[in-house]
Amino acid sequence: MSNIVSLFPEYRGYCIDTSALIDLYEYYPRDVFLKVWEKIENLINRQEFIAPKCVLRELSMIEDRLLIWAKGKRIRKMFKESDRKIIKLVSDIMQKFPTLIDSNSLTEEADPYVIALAINRGCTVISSEKSKLKGGRCAIPDVCKEYKISCLSLVELFRNQSWQF
Description:
It is a single chain. The protein is built from 9 helices and 5 strands; from the N terminus they run H-E-H-H-E-H-H-E-H-H-E-H-E-H. The protein has 165 residues and is α/β, with parallel strands linked by helices.
């Protein structure tokens, strides 16, 4: 995290992708890990835990408690609209990493928007994806490495915040 803070004095926290939000919901259910969710919501309230609006669209594909939580009045503010700077960054990312998304997908994938928002805001990316460069398609950590931004797993986020449960 210290590298990010020095590169981006306006450091704003974390930008989470869809896979990590789903894993948060699946592996740390709110009714069991209430303190985890309270800490996440505290970050959201301080605008230090964000995601692009297309993450919410991806979550909308399945009606479940995670979607209900994400659409809640206090939580909705974490999802950010894409402006021209974000769209330009997404274009740059996709030119360099065309295999980041599935070209056969019928819906817009959030991954390049997560990375672009993180670059734009000076955030650390939170993702459950693992590096795939050797296997053909690339993944969020591969792109983050190229753009020199931190990419953490959920557990690494907890450690980064010094959370203990």
